[in-house]
Amino acid sequence: MQIMLSTRLLSHRIMGIHRTTRGICNRDKIGNRDVVGYGLNGTYMYMDLEMCPFPAIRFRENTPKLMALREKERGDWRRLCLDEKKTLYRASFCQTFAEMDEPSSEWKSILGLTLLGVSGGLWLWIYSHIFVYKNAPISFSEERRAALYWRLKAIMHQPITGLKKPPYVDKYKPETMKED
Question: Whole-model pTM?
Fold first, then answer.
């Protein structure tokens, strides 16, 4: 037994696993709330999660009115009215399961920011095509590119692999090469 405990302690120390303390030093962070369970990972914190439905502490701090209701709760529940039951529930939990399952409206802000980014990109594209990119240089025209092709062919540029012939070259063929 002692060997097993020392082995576990040694493995935790090697792996860097530290147990979270639930000592008196963490109690000042929770205020005047009751510790009612272990919670998600053993720390004093409140979190509404479906996978861990019982948080370690209550949602609200204790007040005199709430403490009186808790004393009444210890008796017969039929004496509690619906409003008192709801008050007790809201003191322990922030949300019901239906409220946790309710879809959030976060998708609206994500969609809005996405559309804002896309529209900003489109406006930058329009601006750049109007003011930044002027007309292409004259050497980009089909006639000049065809002339470059025929000049490279005349000086036998790349005689082994040859040149790729663009489709518009034949209509700009020079007069000296028409008989080919």
Answer: 0.50
The neighbour count for residue 38, using CB atoms within 10 Å, is 13
Tens of pLDDT along 141-177? 889 999 999 899 889 898 888 888 888 888 888 776 6
Could you tell me where in the chain the CATH 1.10.442.10 domains are found? 30-100
The answer to whether domain 30-100 has CATH 3.40.50.300 is no
- Of 41-50, 51-60, 67-76, which range is least confident? 41-50
What CA–CA distances, in Å, run from 122 to 126, 130, 132?
6, 12, 14
Could you tell me which residues are beta bridge partners of residue 35? 57
Instruction: Report the sign of the C-alpha dihedral through residues 159, 164, 170, 173, in that order.
Output: negative
CB 176 within 8 A of CB 150: no
